[in-house]
Here is the input.
Amino acid sequence: MFPFTPALGRETLIYTRRVEPLRDSWGREIKSVRVSVTDKCNFRCTYCMPAEGLEWLRREQILTFEEITRLTAILAALGVNEVRLTGGEPLVRRGLPELVAMLAPIPGVDDLSLTTNGILLQRDARALVDAGLRRINVSLDSLDHVRFAEITRRDALDQVLAGLAEAERYPELRPIKINCVAIKGLTETEVPALAELARRKPYVVRFIEFMPLDADRAWTADQVLTGGEIRGLIEERYGALVELPAKASSTARRFRFADGQGELGFINPVSEPFCSSCDRIRVTADGQLRTCLFSRREWDVKTALRDGRSDAEVTAFLRFAVRHKELKHRVNEPGFVPASRSMSQIGG
Here is the structure.
């Protein structure tokens, strides 16, 4: 073994010998972690949180950059090679590029990415790229100024588009993915413009089925605009789409236009659940490990990091938690109970 200290005040050990991968009791190997760095957000999207916002976590409740880095290094030693930083809105966390610079050199972290609403991207894109960020997802539900303001409760579309334009300047940030939450009665009119965006820009536009993760607990199944329905709308306009290969654990079905220009993705957790190949875990901003987006149980990794446990002891804790990963989310089954937190509190 050798010590690896990415801007840490303590020693973190990375194993050079073969380590048993992190697997759940169903045999799925965990390769991806989504780490929320804050529960705060500067938008108030109608499908996510109330207009007045939520009660935010206090500073001392949130994992420090050093704690996130230590946890990431331990997970990377167990074979978790994809790390995505989320929120809330991660760019409202002060000094986020510093965290990216701490995570990027960790051995085993092959894919370091960020999900953002884009409003601060023009300010931070250069610093993020210089720190080592290589992929970015931007949430964008409409290209119409009025509709955008209705959804987000913020008149900020121009800032988001400026952020995307800034991201385009850096070839290191590829692909740039656009995420649109698909809601019946709302998204149908947005589909043509978003599909056209995929044709004329170096973006992958992805439509995500609306899930029961809203803070108001107002979700109903009849609000779900399925990926199949959206694909039909696009094919009416552009002809049959051509499906692209995707790895088994991919959340999205990938397609390109028949003429070869642009890429689209459909993330269908409600109509086409992909639980059987799920390789993801999540860590909330306040340091709770969630083995499924819809978990009712959380594992207190923050205490494990703060109470003096060694890396080996934290590793044992993570293995125990992951062995309890749920088989599936059960959204479509009778008696389904929504997740214990909303999406902004869990981390996207």
